[in-house]
Amino acid sequence: MPVTLEPLSPKRFPKWLRRSAEEYASDLISLGRSPAEAHRLATHSLTESFPGGQPASGQYVFDVHDGPGRPVGYLWIGRAQGEDDSAWWVWDISINEEERGKGLGRETMLLAERFAKSHGARTLGLSVFGFNTVARRLYETLDYETTSIKMLKNLG
């Protein structure tokens, strides 16, 4: 199924930013962070990349559209922080739950790779939570290599 990336409109951007912060905080909470700490970390992370609520230079947010042009998810991609301009990062990718399993995530990642390369990227990295086994399998089939592992044991 053909997938396209459309820049997120300025009108939709504040809603996306709030949603992204909530989703990131939720993931951090599921890993054992307190709600207060999770929200603080999510807000701090997004404030650096979106000062004044808009993308910093080198950061791009797209709506993912399927073949008929319906929005089915989003992609945030950009230069890695503190590294050279050729190191890029998939900061966030999400396909709507009801659209998963149709190859849209794979197609989105391939478009992300092409976009990054066309903007001078030589590498494209990403992070994935350990509990997200479906995404981990997808990235492995796209030849992404594990470069570090964080581990956590809940002692509570």
Predict the CATH topology: Aminopeptidase
Order of helices and strands: EHHEEEHEH
Strand content: 15-25%
Q: Rounded to an integer, what's the Rg over CA atoms? A: 16 Å
Number of separate strands = 5
- Helix fraction, binned, reads 25-40%
Average predicted local confidence, pLDDT: 91
Q: Report the uncertain regions.
A: none
CATH architecture grouping: 3-Layer(aba) Sandwich
How is the main sheet built?
5 strands, mixed
Q: What is the count of structural domains?
A: 1
Q: CATH class, please?
A: Alpha Beta
Distance between the termini: 46 Å
Q: CATH homologous superfamily name?
A: Gcn5-related N-acetyltransferase (GNAT)
Decide which structural class fits the backbone.
Answer: alpha+beta
Strand order of the largest sheet: 1-2-3-4-5
Shape: globular
Number of helices: 4
InterPro entries: Acyl_CoA_acyltransferase, GNAT_dom
GO molecular function, one term: acyltransferase activity, transferring groups other than amino-acyl groups
Domain N-acetyltransferase: 3-156
Protein name: GNAT family N-acetyltransferase
Explained architecture:
The structure is a single chain. Helix content is 37%, strand content 21%. The chain is α+β, with helices and mostly antiparallel strands and 156 residues long. The chain has a single domain (4-141), classed as Aminopeptidase (3-Layer(aba) Sandwich). A 5-stranded mixed β-sheet has the order 1-2-3-4-5, with helices on one face. Helix 3 (104-118) links the parallel strand 4 and strand 5 (123-126). Helix 1 (13-30) packs across helix 2 (35-49). It is globular. The chain starts with a strand and ends in a 15-residue tail after the last helix.
